[in-house]
Amino acid sequence: MDKKIEISNVESAVLGLLLEKPMYGYEIEKIIEERKMRQWTEIAFSSIYYVLKKLEEKQIVESETENKCGRARKIYFATDLGKNIMREKVKELISNYEKTISGFDLGMSNLDILSKEEAVECFENYIKSVEHVINRIYEVNSTVKKYNRPDHVLALSNRLLAHLNTEKEFIQEFKEKFKENEN
User: Which Gene3D superfamilies does the record cross-reference, listed alphabetically (predicted)?
Assistant: First the structure.
């Protein structure tokens, strides 16, 4: 029986990009930045080459060295095995709810150690930070539309916007009730 090859969400993010086209590491980083993928992935700039190495070890991607302008660089591309593994990973990812762990929830569970004024100030700062992210997502949407990306790419941004707008509304309402509450 064949052992099932598992890949992490970070590995999936990189593999998904390589399924679009072969790329070198820095090109992957540019696309991650351009698409603001760090809003919904946990991939750090410093981990891209580490992830590529892991994917190569699993024979999910392969690389070739290309000489361009007197410089050698590795171009990575997905293998057929990589495509099949990614197909199964995508099915898994969009079939199951995955809980999110938020530092905000931890803070809320310990809210009673703050004064009312401190808590209200923190809520206002949180709302500002959510608004900042909402504005960045609108920028992403403009880029997505500009480059005629597929509808599901725009849906990523719109899903995040829906979550953020709901989060902002919840915190605004909670902040007002908290300010009114004497206890």
Answer: Winged helix-like DNA-binding domain superfamily/Winged helix DNA-binding domain
Residue 123: how many other CB atoms lie within 10 Å: 19
H runs (alpha helix) in the chain: 9-20, 25-34, 48-57, 80-93, 103-109, 116-146, 151-180
Name the architecture of domain 9-93.
Orthogonal Bundle (1.10)
* Ordered per-residue pLDDT tens for the chain, 183 residues: 457 899 999 999 999 999 999 999 999 999 998 887 887 788 888 899 999 999 999 999 999 998 878 888 899 999 999 999 999 999 999 999 988 888 999 999 999 999 999 999 999 999 999 999 999 888 888 887 888 778 887 888 889 899 999 999 999 999 999 999 865
* 108 three-class SS: helix
DSSP string covering 137-167, please? HHHHHHHHHHTT--HHHHHHHHHHHHHHHHH
Threshold 0.85, pTM exceeds:
no
What whole-number distance in Å separates Cα of residue 70 and Cα of residue 138?
40
